[in-house]
Amino acid sequence: QQQVKQSPQSLIVQKGGISIINCAYENTAFDYFPWYQQFPGKGPALLIAIRPDVSEKKEGRFTISFNKSAKQFSLHIMDSQPGDSATYFCAAAAGAGNMLTFGGGTRLMVKP
Amino acid sequence: KAGVTQTPRYLIKTRGQQVTLSCSPISGHRSVSWYQQTPGQGLQFLFEYFSETQRNKGNFPGRFSGRQFSNSRSEMNVSTLELGDSALYLCASSFLTSNQETQYFGPGTRLLVL
User: How far is the C-alpha of A56 from the C-alpha of B74, rounded, in Å?
Assistant: First the structure.
């Protein structure tokens, strides 16, 4: 059972544009929602994370929007750059420990 | 500070064999988690160890096992390898003991089962 659904699977954006990736979850016990960035040959690296007590969190060009009632959250990358071309994963976790449930991933390509 | 290291980086095995993968967490980190990454199933949680105890376990068969040593280094073992076990195995470590701390991933071990 896929508990975190991510869309789109792939995304092409022009340099300077806004990249938007969406995730939806089913488990209402989830209370931690991180986004990870993965380059080929590397492990995922944490970009930004949010907890359900806030609806938005911004760090530099990266913003998470969170809608608790809709059980959805999204990543916005402003002023997208070719160096942002990577695979992005949303994830969710509940309660104690570090058990992350990942979305299926979005392959982002930013064209110069 | 050195990052999470995983050895070996690449491994080729045949069906029926067993394999042991190693992970050294960031110095001072006490929690180590393992994930399997495949094109078809994506990133899936295997298990988490904290202070040498398994704290969480994912939905994988008993052929997948792990352990953690007193220095927080961890190993995972897969017995009776199947073709479907071909994957990138990622280890992640975190520092604090409370809920959902930032996990730092290693580069992974790519396992190919022939």
Answer: 36
* CB-nearest partner of A98 from B31, B43, B107: B31
pLDDT per residue as tens digits for the range B58-88: 999 999 999 999 999 999 999 999 999 999 9
- Beta strand A101-102 pairing with A86-92: antiparallel
Distances B99 to A8, A31, A53, A94, A99 between C-alpha atoms, Å:
29, 10, 15, 8, 10
Residue A95 and residue B8: Cα distance in Å, rounded? Answer: 32
A97 at B interface, C-beta within 8 A: yes
Contact A31, A52 (CB under 8 A): yes
